[in-house]
Each structure stands twice: as structure tokens, then as C-alpha cells.
Amino acid sequence: MKRKAVILLKTKKIVLCVDKTNSEEIYSFLFKNDRHNKKFKFFCEVVVVNNKRQLKDIYKHEQIDELTKDVWAIRFFVGQENARIYCKEYKRNGIIYIVMTELVLRKKTNKIDKKLEKLIRKVGEYEHEIEE
User: Fold this and answer.
1) pTM of the full predicted structure?
2) Please, what sign has the CA dihedral across residues 40, 46, 51, 55?
3) Three-class secondary structure of residue 37 per DSSP
4) CB neighbours of residue 130 within 10 Å
5) Distance CA 65, CA 90 (A)
6) Edge-to-edge strands of the sheet including 59-61?
7) Which helix H or strand E contains 18, and what residues bound it?
8) Rounded Cα gap, residues 122 and 125, in angstroms
9) What whole-number distance in Å separates Cα of residue 96 and Cα of residue 113?
10) What is the SS3 assignment for 17?
11) 91 touches 14 (CB < 8 A)
12) 40-65 pLDDT per residue, tens
């Protein structure tokens, strides 16, 4: 499934993008209020700027099978609303592209239920064309 993504933030090693189809919904969530904006800025600082991608409280690998090996989740307010933005990662020419694709406002269980598993697999099937 071919989709378009636009660049939001760029460093030498990591480029953060947003899926054009879901960008309005994702932007609305990220900039909803100071709390959301502050959490997103923290994610950008830690993961994108400082390249610390293995912090499970912030950014977690969501691999279920081989199809979903490049799916990650930005985690917002764990233990509270537990919102997630599911991302697809691409590695090209030594640069990691993180494309924010699907927003889940509330994850209700500790495990991945059937509905969420379907969404993660859908994200795993996406192929993005990055627009400069």
C-alpha cells in the first residue's frame, strides 16, 4: 500500500515524518494542548535529536511477526490515557526515517488485542514515499 509522507523534523541520522493521509488527526493530537505538545517535544529531543530509540517508556518496538518488524509506537501518557502513534521505520542510506502513521487514542489492555494487532499489521504493510 503506497502512501505519501512529509518531513516534520530532520537531523543527520533520523528524519521524522507524518503520513499525509492521517496528518490532520495526528497534528490535532500532538498540538492539542501544552501537555501533549510537551510530551511530543520530549520524544523529538530524546529519540530524534539524541538518537535514543530503545526507550520503552517513550518509543517501543511493536513487532508481532516478520511483516511488522519495522513498526514502532510513540507512547503518550502510559498508565493514563495510554495513547499511541504507530510508526513505520525505514532505513535508507544510513538514515532512519520514522513515519508517524496511525493514532490510537487509548490502549486499554497490557496485551495486544485482535483490533490492535490488525492495525499494527496494516502499518507494517504501508510503503511510504517521502516528500522533501
Assistant:
1) 0.92
2) negative
3) helix
4) 14
5) 17
6) 59-61, 71-76, 83-92, 95-104, 14-19, 2-10, 127-131
7) strand 14-19
8) 5
9) 29
10) strand
11) no
12) 999 998 888 887 766 778 899 998 89
